[in-house]
Amino acid sequence: NTHHLLILVGSSRRGSLNRQLAENVASIASAQGLRTTLPDIRALDIPIMDQDLEATEGIPAGARQLRQVLEDADALIVCSPEYNGFPTPLLKNALDWMSRPDGDIAGLDAFRGKPALALSASPGALGGLRSLALTRQLLDNLGMLVMPEKLSVGSAGKAFNADGSLANERQQHTLSQAISTLTDRLRRLQS
Ligand code: FNR
């Protein structure tokens, strides 16, 4: 049975560097025999968390859809820029809605016990490094098993080859290793 990886990107900007990183992750994962889903969060049209809206209309369809994909997935990889050192509102908002109970479904069911990996990219030198600890803490709060592997891609405007891989071979190797470690973890969890 093929393992399924959900990749969430904290930016839906046209030409997003984190989207590029996510697509690189997806192609590494496919090459390692994993199935991947890489949705565009903005296209799901998820409103800002509003508990009055939640009380009257329930969970927005886009958030419910994303929660369903996570339910089906074996692991989550987040690629997010940092905005003032924090993971983006686009990402946080989607995760917040996905964490809410929905009818018979308990809030954190889709998250609990699943391996998660946090990555970031930025045109800045640190690559969004400051947000990684916070993203990791958020995923931990959601009940996920946050992997120790991490990568922040700095100067990301010139970090990618034409084929989408990272020009820095050491970084590309780190990423590839992180994904195979994640796969090993999944195998051990499910054996
Ligand atoms: C940024 N950016 C940024 N970059 C960074 O390295 N550290 C930071 O704290 C911030 N803060 C920040 C705040 C806000 C409100 C914006 C809009 C941007 C720059 C950011 O990394 C850059 O725009 C990236 O290109 C965004 O990621 P995508 O869209 O390319 O994936």
From TrEMBL:
GO molecular function: FMN binding; oxidoreductase activity
One Pfam family of this chain: FMN_red
InterPro entries named in the record: Flavoprotein-like_sf, FMN_Rdtase-like_dom, NAD(P)H-dep_reductase
Protein name, per record: NADPH-dependent FMN reductase
Signal peptide: none
Keywords of the record: Flavoprotein, FMN
Keyword Flavoprotein: yes
Organism annotation: Oceanococcus atlanticus
Gene Ontology cellular-component terms listed: cytosol
